[in-house]
Amino acid sequence: MIRTPVLVGLGAMVPPRVVDNEELSQRLDTDDHWIRTRTGITRRHWAGPGTATGDLAVTAAERALRSAGGGPVDMLILATSTPDHPMPATAPGVAARLGLGPIAAFDVSVACAGFVYALATAAGAIAAGIAERVVVVGADIWSTRLNPQDRTTAVIFGDGAGAMVLRAGAPDEPGALAGFDLGGDGTFKDLALVPGGGSRGRSEPDGAGKPDGTGEPDGMGEAGGIGEADEYVTMRGKEIFTHAVHRMGESSAQLLKKIGWSASDIDWVAAHQANVRILHTVAGLLGIDRARVLIHLDRVGNTSAASIPLALTDAAAHGRLAPGQRVLMTAFGGGLSWGSAALTWPPIQVSDVAA
Ligand code: UT7
Q1: What is the domain count for the chain?
Q2: Is residue 237 part of a domain?
């Protein structure tokens, strides 16, 4: 029998500072009505100075491990596109702070689709006998990468972390992950991008970076130079919106076909929380009632790789998820990247995301 990943622990957190639409309206040309009606978001949490992605990841993972009742872990995978440093990966430090011992720990960088990719990686490691129990974390701090002048991105993103503990088990157990669908299309990589901070935008000791002013310092690259603004996230929102709807809808449908579930079997959809209009449109495409779609973004915004485990933790903490119910997860983000996963809900206890 194939060793199947089974969900045994779940936890999440958001940093304490709340930024509501009113606060953003005071410094940007936007207002509460626009943000609420166009995105569904009323507030989000932003990490304060001194708090890094790894810090959020540690708290979420601690809560997930508590929910799982403790026990040994032999792998930790962290989905993030906002690591503590370009090098090393953030995951080994998280594992060390959790006292997990000398285990395999690594980051996966797949933007807002990262958590589903990390889950699929964990599932592969369990199926191959590489790992018995895996902590999978999604954590991002985008607030430090938001251009303070850009009202499109500033109103959307929030910071947070969510985590699951998976163990090797059997496909008929509650909590078993039933399957995955993953995809990507790098031809649209510019739709959501942080231009600087990587090897395409080389740092110069004097900060010059663009010797001939063309942005092509050696004629070899796509973009040259680096400055503070290059490290802000840029997003072509309308185009991303269209791709997100199409890809999450298609990926979910592919997955359901692959595992033999129909839309009417789905009790809850835990989709990446980017925009409530995206979530409702995807539900419509799949023929699933909107009331079956978990909504958490109204209180936390788009938390990128953290959004699916955050939404699930919020729903579980409020008693909305019952053991045996069927849950569809689907995510989409920069890359472009997307993915879906499905599971039957296990009997687990969780604490609230902000507890
Ligand atoms: O996490 C994965 C990656 N991200 C996403 O999935 C995000 C997907 N995209 C979206 O959620 C939406 O496209 C946005 C929320 C980013 C933008 O909403 P939209 O309805 O697509 O707005 P738009 O870009 O079509 O702009 C409509 C109008 C424009 O004004 P004009 O040209 O019609 O006068 C914008 O300038 O709304 C204006 N606008 C704003 N107005 C007030 C754009 N942002 C704002 C704002 N406040 N924050």
Answers
A1: 1
A2: no
Does the CA dihedral 252-155-139-186 come out positive or negative? positive
- Ligand 1 pocket: which of 38, 116, 145, 302 to mutate (most atoms within 8 A of CB): 38
Whether the Cβ atoms of residue 312 and residue 321 lie closer than 8 Å to each other:
yes
Residue 294: inside a domain: no
Q: Is 108 among the domain residues?
A: yes
Neighbours of 88 (CB within 10 A): 13
Q: Is 302 a catalytic residue?
A: yes
CA-nearest residue, atom 8 of ligand 1: 241
The domain of 107 spans 4-169
Ligand 1 centre distance from Cα of residue 338 (Å): 21
Region label for 184, one of left (φ > 0), alpha (ψ between -120 and 50) or beta (otherwise) = beta
Asked if 341 and 329 count as a contact pair (C-beta separation under 8 A), the reply is yes
pLDDT in tens, 56-98: 999 999 999 999 999 999 999 999 999 999 999 999 999 999 9
Residue 63 lies in a domain: yes
Nearest residue (CA) to ligand 1, atom 46: 30
Among 21, 45, 112, 243, the one annotated catalytic: 112
d(CA 167, CA 180): 17
Using pLDDT thresholds of 50, 70 and 90, give the confidence band for residue 206.
low
Q: Give 47's DSSP letter.
A: P
The one-character DSSP state at 63 is H
Residue 162: strand pairing partners: 12, 138
> 313 and 331 in contact (C-beta within 8 Å)?
no
pTM of the shown model: 0.93
How many whole angstroms from 136 Cα to the centroid of ligand 1?
32
pLDDT tens for 109-127 read 999 999 999 999 999 999 9
CATH number, residue 70: 3.40.47.10
Degrees (nearest 5) of the Cα angle 127, 132, 133? 115
| Tokens found for residue 294 | 């978990």
